[in-house]
Task: inverse folding
């Protein structure tokens, strides 16, 4: 499996390129962990060349992102960040490491508060301590943003994180998160059933508090694209009419150019194939098994197919089913033992003397017989 990041470093070139695509994490199910040490080793191998970092990520582990940020900030060469579609959550920490940050005008940028998962039972004191830890993590993120965003105060930044703020390139530029809006490069994006796909990287918007806001932004992108196409067509028609008028004045005849056969758009085929891949992966996950959901989401982000991960999903489901069955049997046995102990039979005095060891064995045998019948 490929790493979450990839490096292009040609010996004869004075510049290098790094791709940071997909989820940011320090461990994964597939053994392609993004460890700060491995990242540092790869960065050191570039030997200070000017570096372009292409980011397209829905975010992930904040501590891994902070480590990557620190390494890029201390890198000897000039670092140019290019957002190839989406920079959300922890990915925005990494983009702030660039000496220059460039973003296409139909890309997306999002900041929010750090989150953590809890599983178990906790009292108020423990939860209060956990809240304080999250506040400290938030402050480290704010400190990174403050070094770039000269147009926002610390309080304004914190409010925008509280609100989970989704930004267009122009808004990100106005606030200071990026330096340049690139209108010459367009991002391929689509939104279907809450799944955002930007330049082949998937993002499940249900994981975010205001994921529904993305639909409005994508809609504006589409409307602007349609408007630009209409303007271009109008300009083309005007140019064609002027050329025809000039030909008429010069007495030249206008011959229709032969019609070229229509070629199917390869980009459309890619979009259809991507949707089919995501649909097949979704079919494997009924959202009742956390491990299966994790594998499916990872497969989506890494470009894997349902056929590739199905054997692993089946193994996890089978293992979970066995454990559930074992739990049911144990619960049944516990209930039988409880019934036997609370039946009141032990309080009835025997009519004839009974050997204590025989009595104990008899009780055990009754429980075993009941368990076998169950």
Result:
């Amino acid at each position: 499996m490929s790493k979450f990041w990839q490096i292009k470093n040609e010996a004869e070139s004075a510049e290098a390129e790094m791709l940071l695509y997909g989820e940011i994490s320090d461990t994964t199910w597939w053994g392609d962990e993004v460890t700060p040490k491995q990242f540092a080793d790869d960065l050191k191998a570039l030997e200070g060349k000017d570096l372009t970092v292409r980011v397209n990520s829905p975010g992930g582990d904040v501590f891994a992102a902070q480590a990557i940020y620190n390494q890029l900030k201390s890198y000897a060469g000039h670092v140019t960040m290019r957002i190839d579609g989406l920079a959300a959550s922890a990915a925005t920490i990494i983009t702030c490491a660039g000496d220059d940050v460039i973003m296409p005008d139909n890309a997306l940028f999002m900041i929010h508060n750090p989150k953590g998962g809890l599983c178990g039972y906790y009292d108020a004191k423990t939860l209060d301590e956990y809240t304080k830890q999250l506040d400290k993590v938030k402050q480290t993120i704010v400190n990174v943003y403050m070094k770039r965003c000269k147009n926002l105060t610390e309080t304004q930044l914190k409010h925008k994180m509280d609100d989970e703020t989704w930004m267009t390139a122009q808004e990100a530029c106005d606030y200071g998160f990026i330096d340049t809006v690139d209108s010459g490069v367009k991002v391929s994006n689509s939104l279907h059933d809450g799944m955002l796909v930007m330049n082949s990287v998937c993002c499940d918007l249900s994981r975010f508090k205001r994921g529904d806001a993305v639909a409005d932004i994508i809609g504006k992108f589409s409307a602007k694209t349609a408007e630009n196409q209409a303007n271009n067509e109008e300009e083309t028609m005007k140019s064609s009419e002027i050329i025809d008028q000039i030909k008429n004045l010069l007495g030249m005849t206008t011959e229709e150019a032969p019609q070229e056969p229509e070629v199917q758009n390869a980009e459309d085929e890619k979009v259809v194939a991507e949707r089919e891949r995501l649909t097949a992966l979704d079919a494997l996950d009924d959202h009742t098994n956390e491990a299966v959901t994790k594998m499916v989401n990872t497969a989506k982000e890494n470009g894997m197919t349902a056929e590739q991960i199905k054997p692993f999903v089946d193994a996890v489901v089978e293992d979970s089913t066995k454990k559930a069955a074992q739990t049911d049997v144990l619960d049944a046995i516990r209930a039988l033992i409880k019934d036997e102990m609370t039946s009141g039979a032990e309080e009835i005095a025997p009519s004839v003397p009974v050997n204590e060891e025989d009595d104990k064995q008899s009780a055990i045998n009754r429980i075993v017989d009941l368990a076998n019948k169950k």
Summary: The first strand starts at residue 5 and ends at 8. Residues 213-249 form the longest helix (37 residues). Residues 5-248 form a domain with the 2-enoyl-CoA Hydratase; Chain A, domain 1 fold (CATH 3.90.226.10). The chain has two domains: 5-248, 321-345+353-373.
